[in-house]
Design goal:
Blueprint: H1 13-23, H2 30-43, H3 48-55, H4 59-72, H5 91-103, H6 114-121, H7 125-135, H8 153-165, E1 171-187, E2 203-216, E3 222-227, H9 232-245, E4 251-256, H10 265-273, E5 277-281, H11 292-302, H12 312-328, H13 339-353
Parallel strand pairs: 1-4, 4-5
Antiparallel strand pairs: 1-2, 2-3
Helix pairs in contact: 1-2, 2-4, 6-7, 8-13
Domain Tc1-like transposase DDE: 180-315
InterPro entries: Homeodomain-like_sf, MscS-like_channel, RNaseH-like_sf, RNaseH_sf, Tc1-like_DDE_dom, Transpos_IS630-like
Protein name: IS630-like element ISMsm2 family transposase
């Protein structure tokens, strides 16, 4: 049903194609999408009242964009320049801030602060902060790294990552490690609820436990065992627990780090007696490649970090409870990087830190 008081809205074939493209959300401008739909609906002969009900916009808005389209066609649907203060910071000044942040430091200091750099370049600290944010610069932050000196670094990366991305058939792959010295801490004062939660900085320690854990990379399920130590014999016994959980007929691949307990004679003797087990060792100083470390971080954040435990038994019960809850709704940690990508990244980093400036 049309609106007889307004002249008909006629579109050319090219205009209709462009408007249909905008209306189908192939543009990032949400307002332009709505405007295109308004024009198409009005060109279809629908009244402002009908279009308002369909698109849930005010009739005055429909009339305004219809009039702008008639006056300027497609160009009339674009946003008009908005009033505002003219730009005062030039591209050269932006480049100066970025270059100084990345390639220099203030005298006697290790990095720039917003206010120090703002005084140096002659602009406000807010402007410096906005430039840093736009370019992702955070000069106050530091990260640590360690390049593995393992002579078999490349071979071990390919071995472990290969198990993640293409696990062998008729086999189970476990990421295994120990989390030692989990403390049973009791705060000296009751924890006060709120956001953030408040707790006393001092505590009474009631002992520690060690946690052995094996993450099934295919299911996210975890086999765990709490002990009072993590000697070689304890690792051997944990391997026996894994053996009891895995159905007969399946090979077992265990990814673990280079702890001496993992290579002890008692462990090697057990492996020889259980030929379906194969140990795969991560490169030295490369715990990041062992997926169980990601699970340990989840456990630490959700259970021990904010827990209050008056005894080792309470801590042990809390750990077992959390692990049981995890296994009821286990989720996978998906490995995405290939071995070549990791090796290329390491080589690129080594190239950067080997330059004369370093």
């Amino acid at each position: 049903m049309g609106d007889n008081r307004l002249p008909p809205l006629v579109l050319t074939d090219d205009e209709r194609v462009v408007l249909q493209g905008w209306a189908s959300r192939r543009t990032t401008a949400q307002g332009l999408t709505v405007r295109a739909r308004i024009v198409l609906e009005r060109a279809g002969g629908h009244s402002n009242f009908v279009v308002s009900a369909r698109l849930r916009v005010a009739r005055g808005t429909i009339a305004r964009w219809r009039a702008r389209f008639i006056a300027d066609r497609l160009d009339g649907l674009a946003d008009e320049p908005r009033p505002g203060v003219p730009r005062t910071i030039t591209d050269a000044q932006v480049e100066q801030v970025v270059v100084m942040t990345l390639e220099s430091v203030p005298e006697g200091e290790t990095h720039w602060s917003k206010r120090r750099l703002a005084r140096k370049v002659g602009m406000s600290s807010t402007s410096v902060g906005q430039i840093w944010k736009a370019f992702g610069l955070q000069p106050w932050k530091t990260e640590t790294f360690k390049i593995s000196p393992d002579p078999l670094l490349i071979d071990k990366i390919r071995d472990v990552v290969g198990l993640y991305l293409a696990p062998p058939t008729n086999a189970v792959v476990f990421s295994v490690d120990e989390k030692p010295q989990i403390q049973a801490l009791e705060r000296t004062a009751p924890v006060l609820p709120g956001t953030p939660e408040r707790r006393s900085f001092d505590y009474v320690r009631h002992g520690t436990v060690d946690l052995f854990a094996a993450l099934d990379i295919a299911t996210g399920q975890v086999i765990a065992k709490v002990t009072d130590r993590h000697a070689a014999i304890d690792f051997r016994d944990f391997l026996a627990d894994i053996d009891a959980h895995v159905p007969a007929g399946l090979d077992v691949h265990v990814i673990c780090d280079n702890l001496s307990a993992h290579k002890a004679p008692v462990v090697q003797h057990w492996i020889m007696q259980h030929p379906r087990f194969t140990l795969h060792f991560t490169p030295t100083y490369s715990s990041w490649i062992n997926q169980i470390e990601r699970w340990f971080a989840e456990l630490q954040r959700r259970c021990p970090d904010r827990g209050v435990f008056c005894s080792v038994d309470q801590l042990t019960t809390a750990l077992h409870t959390w692990i049981d809850i995890w296994n009821k709704d286990a989720r996978l940690f998906t490995w995405k990087k290939t071995a070549d990508q990791i090796i290329d990244h390491i080589c690129h980093y080594c190239s950067r830190i080997s330059r004369p400036a370093h």
